[in-house]
Design a protein that fits this description.
- The protein is mostly helical.
- The protein has a domain of 57 residues.
- Helix content is 57%, strand content 4%.
- The two termini are 42 Å apart.
């Protein structure tokens, strides 16, 4: 399909479709911001020497972790990887794990 045909198809969709798509996108953004973006958690004792050293020398640990917006969920990453492997069978690699 050429680009003008795709544009014509998108323009012919009803307004209710675009309203529903906008609401779903807004819901996804709210979910992403409230439940996906989280502070980095360091699993070390708060009063321990190593935990304090790592926190002092790695300021990135005081920030939030922002995973990719389009594929932030681990199960979706697995599905995407298996689909990619099926579409591109010529990749030659050796798994080490």
């Amino acid at each position: 399909m050429a680009l003008p045909e795709v544009c014509a198809l998108l323009a012919s969709l009803p307004l209710s479709f675009w309203a529903a798509a906008g609401i779903l996108l807004l819901a996804l953004v709210v979910y992403y911001r409230l439940h996906v973006v989280q502070p980095v958690v360091l699993h070390a004792r708060e009063d321990g020497a190593i935990g304090g050293l790592v926190r002092d020398r790695m300021p990135i640990l005081r920030e939030h972790y922002w995973p990719t917006f389009w594929c932030f969920e681990s199960r979706m990453q697995t599905v995407l990887a298996s689909m990619t492997r099926r579409m591109i069978p010529d990749i030659r690699y050796q798994r080490e794990v």
